[in-house]
Amino acid sequence: MVMELKVKNQIPCIDFTNDPQNLEEGSEGWNDLCNQVREACEQYGSFQVLYNKIPSSLCQDVFNECKGLFDLPDETKQKNLSPKPYYGYAKSDMLPFYEGFGVENPLLLDAVQDFMELMWAQGNPKFCETLHSVATKLHELELIVLKMLCQTYGVEKHFEAQAKRFENTFRLLKYKVPPQSDSVVVLGAHTDKGSITVLCQDGVEGLEVLSKEREWLQVAALKGAFVVFVGDSLKAWSNGRLYAAKHRVVLSGDKERFSYALFASPKEGVIIEVPEELVDQEHPLLYKPFNFMDFFNQFLATDLKFNENPLEAYTGV
Ligand SMILES: O=C(O)CCC(=O)C(=O)O
Ligand SMILES: [Fe+2]
What we know:
By secondary structure, this protein is of the alpha+beta class. The protein is 32% helix and 24% strand. The protein has nine helices and 14 strands. The strands form three sheets. The chain has an eight-stranded mixed sheet. The model has no long low-confidence stretch (mean pLDDT 94). It comes from Thalictrum thalictroides (Rue-anemone).
């Protein structure tokens, strides 16, 4: 049975918690969820998912701990560097209300520990454990979504190889309350450039997703829910079946907003190439093979970032 959980003017909300059996591959419930995930990713490029394998208390612990991180002195925060743009600490005059940290490879406890030791001389064992644990669980969710998509397209044989080509980055974000009382766009409209993003919100709303009808849909800050986004590179890999939705953050109240997300992106050197099973008469090849990091760097460094369809402009057939 396909359950219609879509509320008007909202991205779909898919319930993974109904029955534990539904997450058993091959069960009727699993197949039904696969279809819902595919439909959401094709039509909205995003969905909320109710998922109870990440305890709410653990999600909240990250929010509690990260306040102290954002309160550190600027010179300490700036030590969170990465050779890759947008993978480290970000704060700029262009985005005056936004601030973000990046923890690369958060599935490796040592990498999280290195980050903590950069920020605090003695490290921060509790935060380290919490962040690593949440990242590990968000990664499990990311892999479930990827597996479901591979299965519904009949390319499950590519799932393992595809997952191995991802690297994960954890980003912690804070949005300050703008002094103006009206709504302010604190993070501009963009598509995620990587493959899959799984995001956790702290209860303060503001995230909006642009529908295909060009209407901004507000994403409710639901408890126990995570937001999943399809990124440009997964859209390319699917030969355009999946949609990469623009999204932004708009603040209007008097509460600062925190969020964090696990971003899965193709590793350095990975070439995105549409599997031959996804090309046929009905679906002619839309994208030439391309090096993801080259696309990403070019996007950031050139006018490509102002293009409405950067992926198509860069590598469209
Ligand atoms: O903070 C949010 O809810 C959205 C963040 C986001 O879209 C991003 O970092 O790419
Ligand atoms: Fe995003």
